[in-house]
Write a structure and sequence with these properties.
130 residues, 3-stranded mixed beta sheet, single chain, alpha/beta, CBS-domain, globular
Length: 130
């Protein structure tokens, strides 16, 4: 199965100036563990995950002051929609990631998570609309 068939096309996108609290609230409302960070003034996209928020909180940083741009996951790996689900799982395993942003010609077209991959492998229906 290809990533395009397993990914969620409904991706939470936040800006680099959103606070960590704002991003975390949006993630909680949507029931997702990550957000794509798009800065219209720069090239490329980043990803911020619940782990990135937890690291900031654990370090005693103020979630009402800290901006998403300062807390992006480093060394992001992007998946292509034509990758196999197995290739996405391998990339996650190598990088220690639970989410991959899916890009098609440098445009965000989706997000694939460990949950999506497990769902495919066990043949289960999606639990929630993400």
């Amino acid at each position: 199965m290809r990533v395009r068939e397993a990914m969620s096309g409904d991706v939470l996108i936040v800006g680099p100036e959103h606070t960590l609290r704002q991003a975390a609230e949006m993630m909680a409302q949507r029931g997702v563990g990550s957000a794509v960070v798009v800065d219209p003034d720069s090239e490329g996209v980043g990803i911020m995950t619940e782990r990135d928020v937890l690291k900031a909180v654990g370090a005693g940083l103020d979630v009402d002051v800290e901006r998403t741009a300062a807390h992006l996951t480093p060394e992001v790996v992007y998946a292509g929609p034509d990758w196999t689900v197995h290739e996405a799982a391998e990339a996650m395993s190598r990088g220690g990631f639970r989410h991959l942003v899916v890009l098609d010609d440098d445009e965000v077209v989706g997000m694939i998570s460990v949950r999506d991959i497990v769902r495919v492998w066990v043949g289960a229906p999606a639990v929630a609309s993400i």
